[in-house]
Task: inverse folding
């Protein structure tokens, strides 16, 4: 198929990118967030969410996470695509912070835990998992990431 044949239905290359981001967000919500409906907030739900995310990264061979890839591609390129990815990732961050707050309130995490720091570390695990899957084709990357999340979210 020609380049024009791919872009044509969308009008512009930017609209094609935006449609791809929207589809990635929808798939993320379906694979990661939808199965959590009704689950109690806190570390258990947060662990399940990350498990599902890591599994989805490896589900199609070495596809990884499109949102993570687009974020890396567009992080220094202002515009609607970057804005759309930032908005999606900000919603994920808000979800994670909400779960961390619930975990703190329930005593699942040690007093004094810094949710912003823990969010940063969880992001790092997800980025490492994605690179392990996509770049290194490491079949152990999702399992390693799952262990790292559990270590971060288990109170000493």
Result:
């Amino acid at each position: 198929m020609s380049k024009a044949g791919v872009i044509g239905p969308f009008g512009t290359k930017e609209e094609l990118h935006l449609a791809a981001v929207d589809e990635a967000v929808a798939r993320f919500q379906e694979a990661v967030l939808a199965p959590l409906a009704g689950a109690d907030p806190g570390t258990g739900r947060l662990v399940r969410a990350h498990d599902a995310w890591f599994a989805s990264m490896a589900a199609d061979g070495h596809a990884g996470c499109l949102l993570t890839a687009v974020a890396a591609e567009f992080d220094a390129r202002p515009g609607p695509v970057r804005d759309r990815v930032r908005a999606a990732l900000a919603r994920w961050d808000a979800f994670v912070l909400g779960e961390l707050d619930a975990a703190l309130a329930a005593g699942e995490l040690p007093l004094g835990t810094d949710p912003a720091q823990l969010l940063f570390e969880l992001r790092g695990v997800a980025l490492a998992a994605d690179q392990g899957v996509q770049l290194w084709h490491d079949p152990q990357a999702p399992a390693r990431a799952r262990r790292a999340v559990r270590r971060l979210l288990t109170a000493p």
Summary: DSSP finds seven helices and no strands in the chain.
